[in-house]
Amino acid sequence: MKLICKSCNLEVSKQVSELLDLNLLDRNVGHNYIPEGFYVIDDGITYPVGLKGYILINIKDLTNTNYHSDQSRLNGCCGYDGCDGLNRICLNNHEIGTERSDCWMPHYVAFNPELVQLI
Ligand SMILES: [Zn+2]
Description:
Blueprint: E1 3-5, E2 17-18, E3 38-41, E4 55-57, E5 65-67, E6 88-90, E7 95-100, E8 108-111, E9 116-118
Parallel strand pairs: 2-3
Antiparallel strand pairs: 1-9, 3-4, 4-8, 5-6, 6-7, 7-8
Bound molecules: zinc ion.
C-alpha cells in the first residue's frame, strides 16, 4: 500500500503495510512509534492521536512532502510538536497530515483520512 494526496494523487509515502503485531509499537518519547515500512489506522483508542480513522506512519516513510509554509504550524522544542494543526504538505502544497517529532513524544506522522488515501 501507499498513501496518496487526494487533491493531486501524488504519492506521499513509500510502500507500507499494515502493522498487525502491536507489540512492535514503541511508545517511548523520542523514539519512532511505528516501525519503518508499516502503517496503523487509529481506532480512536489505542494510539496517541485518538482520532478515529487517522493513518499513522514512520516519518522516514514520507516521500514527496514538505513542511507547511505557515510558520505558526511548525512549533516545537527540538522537533515539531504538531499541536498547531497540519504541518505537512505534499509537493503541490496540499495539506495532508501532522508530523509529531518533538522530544517529549513518540515520533510519527498522522494523516487526515479526508486528505489522503491508501491505495
Ligand atoms: Zn497534493
